[in-house]
Amino acid sequence: MKKLLAILLTALFVLSGLALAESSGASAASGTLVIYSPHDASPLEAGVKLFEAAYPGIEVQVVAAGTGELLQRIAAESENPLADVLWGGGADSLAAFKSYFDPYVCANDAVIDEAYKDKDDLWIGESPLPMVIFYNRELVKDEEAPKTWNDLLDPKWKGQIAYASPAKSGSAFTQLCTMIFANGGPEGGGWDFVKAFYANLDGKVQDSSGNCHKLVKTGEYKIGITIEKSAVLYEGDDTVGYNYPAGNSAVPDGVAMVKNCPNPDNAKLFIDFVTGVECQTEQSTNWKRRPVRTDMDTGSLPALSELDLADYDFDWAANNKPEIIETWQDIMVG
Fold first, then answer.
1. If you average pLDDT over every residue of the chain, what do you get?
2. Do 318 and 169 share a domain, yes or no?
3. What is the distance, to the nearest Å, from the Cα of residue 26 to the centroid of all Cα atoms in its chain?
4. Same domain for 312 and 193?
5. Same domain, 61 and 158
6. pLDDT score of 4 more than 80
7. pLDDT tens-digit map of 111-158
8. Helix, strand, coil tally for the chain in percent (to 5)
9. Of 30-39, 87-96, 226-235, 304-313, which one has max mean pLDDT?
10. With 60 as the cut, is the pLDDT of residue 15 above it?
11. Average pLDDT, stretch 99-111?
């Protein structure tokens, strides 16, 4: 009996020691963390507050802007990095700049599918993002709302489509590539579709993808192309609706550690945190962001297996981004 009691007491001391070590590890973390992020303000603020509560000794600074702008800024600062981590932006956009990131295998690697991680561990997916066609129900009837990419070419939508510049918005870049792949690919008619699509925009292109769903909601545009996480925030609002077009994509938002960043230990803590259960649950529950973890369900969102996903050529999108943007801009100027 005494031997059993001794074993139990030893186990208790070990468990208490581990808990104390974890607690002291969180409290011992200190210094600064600079986050660059294109995320919408509310989920961004919520995620940062959760991290600050977990690591009160770390002073967090946030720089918010579009994905393209932040990536260009990271490149320009590469000789003297100011940011520690980039949180958000389509992974294909991050992959195009991955020479500016340091590799890191996060603590949650085992529950993240290989499709949502860079093969060299230079970025990690944190939320897969299908695309949707968003519409104002006060201006567009459900039955006439576009359900395919080709529906966007209907002349009745000319000048009525909210779409952001792929040169400035990571999600708009992903949308552009998705439309190309869904319509024959870059060598098989995809760019012809883009030309017809741009003609139907009637020269109206937004600076930010975050504006697109807002402009549709206010009725300035009848329809718009946006990401699932923006559309589902209107759940319960009968004045707007959205459709998942056939030939979709689910490129994830990513998170990455900036190469030679000032605070690499804190950057790693943050990457572990945003791919962890607490943050993934909060972002999914409160902001309808699809979790990347395989040990979590998607809640009210349809499973990716239920969507018609195109064969998204990730390498082409990532490795040819400058040429893709240049071709888009050539189409804009005619």
1. 91
2. yes
3. 27
4. yes
5. no
6. no
7. 999 989 999 999 999 999 999 999 999 999 999 999 999 999 999 999
8. 50, 15, 35
9. 30-39
10. no
11. 97
Question: pLDDT at position 73, please?
Answer: 98
Q: How far is CA 34 from CA 82, 93, 97, 206, in A?
A: 7, 20, 18, 28
| Greatest alpha-carbon span in the chain | 87
Q: Which residue reads 């972002």 in tokens?
A: 283
| CATH number where 66 lies | 3.40.190.10
Distance CA 290, CA 36 (A): 21
- Is the CB of residue 242 less than 8 Å from the CB of residue 231? yes
By residue range, what is the domain housing residue 72?
2-129+252-301
Q: What pTM was estimated for this model as a whole?
A: 0.78
Q: Return phi, psi of residue 285, to 5°.
A: -70, -45
How many C-beta neighbours within 10 Å does residue 167 have? 19
Distance in angstroms (rounded) separating the CA atoms of residues 298 and 91: 20
* Distance (Å, whole) CA 311 – CA 213: 26
| Strand segments (E) across the chain | 31-37, 58-64, 85-90, 101-102, 124-128, 131-136, 161-162, 223-227, 240-243, 252-258
